[in-house]
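Write out the 3D structure for:
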Amino acid sequence: MPVHKLENQTVRPFAAAALLPMTMLVMLLLPAEVPAQPAVQAPASIYTCTDARGRTLTADRPIAECTDREQRELSPSGTTRRRIEPTYTARELAEREDRAREASLQAARLLDERRRERALLVRYPNITVHDRERGEALVQIDAVIQAAKKRLEELGEDRKRIDEELEFYKHDVSKAPGAVRRKLDDNMQSVAVQNRFIGEQEDEKKRVNARFDEERTRLKQIWSPQNGGK
């Protein structure tokens, strides 16, 4: 093995390497520089929409002419990556919310209507059942009216007896005894009450008939033909 002399000292090759500057050793030990790889770019997007004039527009970025309508972001292969909602003004947002709220209310009304129709169909499976229940409801009201009319007849008989007692005072009822005058007043008030009650029951009959007529119209739309439907 060759040797080197350095200032009258014998130095072997490996020992001489130890005397090299540290920076040179670091550089020797570092790996060779690897060439930088080009950055992989994401596939470009394509934006498309139909503008207010019906034209189909395409661009490599969101389209300004279509800010008021939906745009689609497409991949290079043509598949839809996402849908871009329109940009609304405050007024347009309020109108959009109003329309959505009205649509929701309408849907709720339709749902409630369907529930009522199903309930009606369960209660009145055919026209015979519906007619029978109408008749029963009217019979009950008529019974109440007849009772009130009977009471009127009784009050009429009472009035005859009162009038007999007032025969002597018919020219000046104020001179009749207080008990007789009170009976007269009570009788007149009772007659008024019964007549008013009869009028209310007649109105109730009209309401019942109107309700059954309305139900009949709706039921005819959902009854099968053999059950009385159209």
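Confidence is low (pLDDT under 50) at residues 3-11, 13-20.
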